[in-house]
User: Fold Coenzyme F420-dependent NADP oxidoreductase from Anaeromyces robustus.
Amino acid sequence: MKYGVLGTGVVAQIIATKLIELGHEVMMGSRTANNENAVQWAEKHGERAKCGNFAEAAAFGERVFNLVKGIHSLEALKAAGAENLKGKILIDQTNPYIYKNGHISLDSKFTGDTCLGEENQKLLPDTKVVKTLNYIGANMMTSQEGLKEPVTGFYCGNDAEAKEVVKGILQDFGWKDTFDLGDISMSRYTEMFGSFWVPLYNQLGSMEWGFKLVRNEK
Assistant:
């Protein structure tokens, strides 16, 4: 399978590297085709690892991960091109974080009666956007080794088949427990959940934890 990865930061490199380890081809995309992080990553990971700009990565991938900073998501998706993403699954891990007076919050443009996941879907009506993995530390996204018990992988989107595909990706990433939250509007809650993760991380001083949905067995 060919994957496009939009973004070159820590999360993008973790996800892209895991995809390579799983045997896929990956193109990491950024604003410019010669982004230093992307070039170094591609050189390190062999012939199945490539780099390009957003549009090239979107066109390359049969599936695409949106891993840019949330406040730049719409801009990056416009650069990627609706035609390059048409009919494809977009795995969206973005949160519209802003920092003010030492506190994290969600950009007010993406709160109330909308959220970033919904706006990404509105921008790309012919793309199957599925929100997931925006509520956990980067190093736990593709490995939960060392945890006492599995944490829960939440996901949401409008297309049922696309969500099943993303569920399978989560399982490939080592998630033993997954939960379908519903349509893309449920991103409103995972984005808030993501912002709740930050102060807990600050208190714990570690990313090696996660949220678990505990069900009544009756």
Summary: The chain has a mean pLDDT of 94. The radius of gyration is 16 Å.
